[in-house]
Amino acid sequence: MSLPPNFSQAVDLSSLGKPAPDTSTVMPGLVVTAENLQAEILPLSSTKPVVVLCWSARSIESVETLRALGNLESADNKKWILATVDIDTQAPVAQALQARTIPYGVVFIGGQAIPFLEQALSETQLREVINKILTLAAQQGIGEEPVEATEPEEDEALAALDQGDYATAEAAYKRLLARKPSDNFAKLGLAQVQLLIRTEGVDGQKVMEDAVRHPDEIAIQLQCADVEVMSGYLEPAFERLLRLVTILDGNEQKVVKDRLLELFGLVDPADPRVIKARAALANALF
């Protein structure tokens, strides 16, 4: 790897005018130098991702980023390797890594360099980035994919489901969604549990016969669609509710539409049956 000159022309030093933070304690990570980068640091990336952070003791943000990465490396029990480039003592190395501001991060996976950081991030944000790095590396046969920690409410819900206690599982998922409204796994879990609740103890054969006799009874058609989805008959369920959407309006139409969207959410969005039904729903509504 060549080490271009004129590093000072490539690095934005505008953020370095602040008082230097205390770095008297030992900073985390392997120290990268021009001598060990190619001989020692890069070969490590054949077995684990090597996360390299360019930093300076004169930049509070980069020091905080480095310490946060050190915390994450320890928490991950060395599933990846943290290495550091002090731009004040290793300017040519930072230049070779194409650092133009700090903190600046690049990860090596199997010897390939991938920039991943050009601004300070919180430790929570860095956790998400590291998980993506680990996943990418695992897809290339290097290291292991991260194991996502489950939420306590999710653990409670799954334990309740094992016992057939759907009400407790539903309550647990609702509490999780109240705390994390955008949690897609919780949304899916709640929808699954509510489908189980709606179909528990139902005589599927009788429901389907009633649906034939009463094609315009909304409650019966909704229940029949639930039974069909539980039985794997997705297209008949979708078509059943789509027909109602086209003949209803107002609040009744909304009830059916919302149930249809809920059932869509139980299936892989790439499933052609879902794609087709979603298009039909859009046509019916607009």
TrEMBL record:
Q: What is this protein called?
A: Unannotated protein
